[in-house]
Amino acid sequence: MSEQTVGILGGGQLGSLLCLGAKKLNIKTIIYCDEENAPAQTYSDEFIFGDYKDKIKIQEFIDKVDVVTYEFENIPFETLDLINQYKQVKPKPAINKIVQHRLYEKDFINKCNISTTRYVSIKEKSDLNANVKLIPALLKTCRLGYDGKGQHKLNNSTDLENLSIDFSQEYILEKLINLKKEFSIILTRYGHSIHSIYEPIENKHENQILKYSKIPADIDEKIILKAKDWASIIADDLDYIGTICVEYFIDKNDNLYVNEIAPRVHNSGHLTINSYNISQFENHIRAICGFEKEELKKIYNAKMINIIGDEIVSYRSKNYSDNEFFFDYGKKDIKANRKMGHLTIIQK
Ligand code: ADP
Ligand code: MG
């Protein structure tokens, strides 16, 4: 087991933390990323810089690894499929194809008899006009959105009239939910019904970007059971291997909805590093490398703060006490709305 090398597509903070999880298990990592300064190269054993569509570079990567995973869902499907012909990609590429497209993703969730907000496919302006009744709503690009990017809020029909968007892309119009709470369930699946599920993590967003996460979540036990059940159904239905995150909404009438699925480790699970015996990252590596499942044990309650844009400057010069864990993603440029680091505070 210890001789395995894991290939990771993507070299951001999730890639960095996956490398650290692997290191604990004495497993080697190779990062492949299309960004020359990718932060994760500091933590991996090897780094390959190349375009995700560069077949020669990808082949070089394939030859060096035993199993491949990814830190974000927007890797071209063709690349994952090509790699999978030589070395197993986990979770399997077919899953990515569903989850990287908001419409296929929501269709899939509903097919599992699980609730989402009401939604409709938007291909042209007339589709919008025909669905005015869904407003207030969010118009989202079907592909490539993250941290609220590619989303337009439509509060009324005037917003719709003033909207100017490019219809060369596909969109989804989602009814706006009157949110009471957001939370996530992180689950690592090892095989059929072999799941290790972290307790729900309560999340607060600012400007559609995750800002705070905490455990325990202040949520009714019945809702928690339903959410865990739904996450298990989703993971089994996808025949998922590794760590998956399901994001949930609770509305003001206590209705539960799945917002979206992340086929990977998730920002809200950073606090598992300091609060659990096994973090979401280590658990992912364990599952994709064929380890046996180990029981999860929470050690501490915790909260996490995402450090966005130039907030990082003051965090870099702070002194921290022994229950505070600051992680600087080491990104070269500070940009507004960019996740630059995080701070986890455990409650001893
Ligand atoms: P991203 O891929 O950017 O994370 P999400 O669909 O999760 O996209 O949207 C980001 C955030 O925007 C959500 O966590 C939530 O706070 C808000 N949001 C998204 N969709 C809705 C909705 N239908 N109703 C209410 N709030 C929403
Ligand atoms: Mg989201």
Describe this protein's structure:
- It is a single chain.
- By secondary structure, this protein is an alpha+beta fold.
- The chain folds into three domains: 5-89, Rossmann fold (3-Layer(aba) Sandwich), CATH 3.40.50; 118-175, 2-Layer Sandwich (Dna Ligase, domain 1); 179-347, D-amino Acid Aminotransferase, Chain A, domain 1, CATH 3.30.470.
- The chain has eleven helices and 18 strands.
- The strands form three sheets. Strands 10, 11, 12, 13, 14, 15, 16, 17 and 18 form a nine-stranded antiparallel beta sheet that branches.
- α1 links the parallel β1 (5-9) and β2 (28-33).
- α1 crosses α10 and α3 packs antiparallel against α4.
- It starts with a strand and ends with a strand.
- It binds adenosine-5'-diphosphate (ADP) and magnesium ion.
- Magnesium ion binds next to loops.
* Structural class by secondary-structure content: alpha+beta
Radius of gyration: 20 Å
Bound molecules: adenosine-5'-diphosphate, magnesium ion
CATH homologous superfamily grouping of the largest domain? ATP-grasp fold, B domain
User: How many β-strand runs?
Assistant: 18
Alpha-carbon distance between the termini? 34 Å
| The CATH topology of the largest domain | D-amino Acid Aminotransferase, Chain A, domain 1
**Largest sheet report:** 9 strands, antiparallel
Beta percentage is 25-35%
Helices and strands, in order, run as EHEEHEHEHHEHEEHEEEEEHEEHHEHEE
Please count the helical segments: 11
Query: Please, what is the average pLDDT?
Result: 96
Helix residue percentage:
25-40%
What is the CATH architecture term of the largest domain? 2-Layer Sandwich
Shape field: globular
**Total separate domains:** 3
Under CATH at level 1, the class of the largest domain stands as Alpha Beta
Taking pLDDT < 50 over at least 5 consecutive residues as the criterion, the unreliable ranges are none
